[in-house]
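Progress report, Aim 2. The chain analyzed during this reporting quarter is listed below.
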Amino acid sequence: VDDWTRLFPNITPYYAVKCNNDEVLLKTLAKKGVNFDCASRNEILQVLKLGVDPSRILFAHTIKSPGSLVFAHDSGTNLMTFDSTHELDKIKLYHPQAKTMIRIRSTDPMAIVKLNKYGANETEIEPLLAHAKTIGVTVVGISFHVGSGSRNPDAYWQALKLARETYDVAKDAGHDIRIVDIGGGMFADIEDDGTVTSCVAQYIQDGMRDFFAGIDVKFIAEPGRFFAQHYSVLACQVVGKRVREGLYEYFLNEGTYGGMSNCIHEKAEPVPVIVKEVTTAESFELALIENLQREDLNALETASAYARLIEENGYTQEALSERVGKSRVAITNSLRLLK
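Predicted structure tokens for the chain:
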């Protein structure tokens, strides 16, 4: 959070809960005064349960169900986005007190995750703002998202340029624009000396100055990976294995539909890491213990392996039972086969 304040001193962060909704992370960010970008009823509920005031929540989804709009209304979650007349009509019907922001389409073709499905095209902006005025939906802001994992400074500059043009259109339509939301997707790069940097920070500041100098608006953002990418390490457990065509296959308790989804969607490159340097003797011990897990070992082979581990590594039967995950009684009974 301190690094964000240093790099983006005039931009209020709304953490994107969808990035990582770990409760410890959310609690920590809440205590440090970070606000929250929620994309669903469940995300809003999770944040509210932490004691966060609904005024600190942005319902940042341009296509919301009637039920989620009713929940937002009842919980006092008023700030939200739209990009279509249909969404404006729903907001008017189910949450007439909402404070809305028009999301404009702006994308970085080089972003890791492109988000150009959402946002109004340039030709749609004026009719949308006119419709909002006609039906009485309050528009207080402009939002965009160039894509997650963007390192292209020009994408933010172009988006801020379009945001300023939208500001002028909104003002002509009679809307009082007070917020500009620059989205998220910014990387937090860690240098060799431990300093956190962002390759787009200065360009964002330049764009804000170029297009909004002298205009009284509050800048906010929806950072996710900036706060979450270095927060934790995913430790997995091998829960299954098989041999197929001479290859060993191991199955983890996590996968691409869970914590490893980014490995597929972001085309992450695997990085081999030596977890621990081992001696030849230690390597042999580990291999022997691994082979003890085979289902095709007979009782004498298992007993011989136990005896060898005790002899060559100095294990007591108690220590060996802990090492191989068997009971002391099982070890003792197995060794009796060798007598």
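Residues 67 and 94 are 8 Å apart (CA to CA). The chain has 14 helices and twelve strands. These observations will guide the mutagenesis work planned for the next reporting period.
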